[in-house]
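We emphasize that the prediction below concerns an isolated chain of 450 residues; any contacts that depend on oligomerization or on bound cofactors are therefore not represented. The input was used exactly as deposited, without trimming of termini.
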Amino acid sequence: MTNKNTINSLPLPPGDFGLPLIGESIDFLRDPNFTKKRQEKYGSVFKTHIFGQPTIVAIGADANKYIFTNENKYFTNNWPKSTRKLLGEGSLAVQIGTEHQKRRKILAQAFQPRALSSYISTIEANTYKYFERWEKLGNFTWYPEIKNYTLDIACKLLVGIDSASQTQIGNSYKAWVDGLFSLGIKLPWTTFGKAWESRKILLQEIEKIIQERIKSNNYQSDALSLLIQAEDEEGNRLSIEELKDQILTLIFAGHETLTSAILCFCLLVAQHPQVRAAIRQEQEELGLDMPITLENLKQMTYLEQVLKETLRLIPPVGGGFRQVLETCEFNGYKMPQGWSILYQVGYTHKDIDIYPQPERFDPERFNLTKLEDKPKAFSFVPFGGGLRECIGKEFAKLEIKIFAALLVRNYQWELIPQQNLDLVTFPSPHPKEGLKVNFQKLPKNELIHN
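Result of the prediction step, given as a token string:
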């Protein structure tokens, strides 16, 4: 066991703190190669100064394992100030320790298999509605459309609102999301200031829905009804104030990252027609009219491989922040108490020792006979890991899989030439020009031949 004196005598990781006060925050937000450049210069553990805090960036499966398995011992959750403020004190993402564990148990009730099964018809109905819209449009930019699609589903399943993207919630939500990772300066003209005002509007709208639901005693098959009635082991329920923050967090979790995952699936599959043909073939073998159920979705094993490879190559979340509770040691470096730690998802997924030809899109790497993510713990972490693994992981997988299966069964789409497909990383990865496509319905029972 390494004692405290030994740890304190260890060096800090190499790196640069950048400018006074703002450190390297602007570079971090603007430069998609921020981490790559520093990894090449300093190695897989380096220091920087972002979002007002000295921060250690730690890359790779071993770093992930160390951070995830020492939650509440050496590390605790730590979002940038802008994120904490805009999510709110009642948000599961901000809560820590035993409070986090208690709340997680309550919220998990909205993501049990029985609840997930009840969401399928709503997801299907909204998916077909958007497919019909896109068929009529023919040529369009997919990113804003998929943002509306995932927001509509999240709001319908969480709070029972139809077509939320076209309401006050939709308008305010965009400004709120834009401020989540910003410089946290609350002035009316700043990104954060606008986001703060939007948060107030969103909470007012959510509170109206909660109060109406409680008053009418009319509980529906959505997450809000489950959460109003849900109790912890001592019989306590969520207060209205906390419920508002939790619902807002769940809308964000069920929207932003899902938009990116679905869009990147559409991009990668369009670029690899042989993969699309193989997904379609699996759907035909299972039956193009096979109803969507939790059991039937499990049979779509090749589609599962494609979705895993999409999340490996372009994970919706690039990493996560923790705060050091107690000075500790990793890889021969000191991690001082009070500092931030940033673990990396995308760079873990590009580890050449685990994933040969990591830049290549190859769903076969997740074939049951290969399973490249299995030999090493925490080498595939699109949903994080440990005690704080994404609570909506199974919901996200459900929605993506339904969308993908129904899309490939019924439609074909081609990328419009000469567009910029470089990825913008904030708020989550998406092509710079939003993915311009030509979208058409497949003639009935037509096979895709490429």
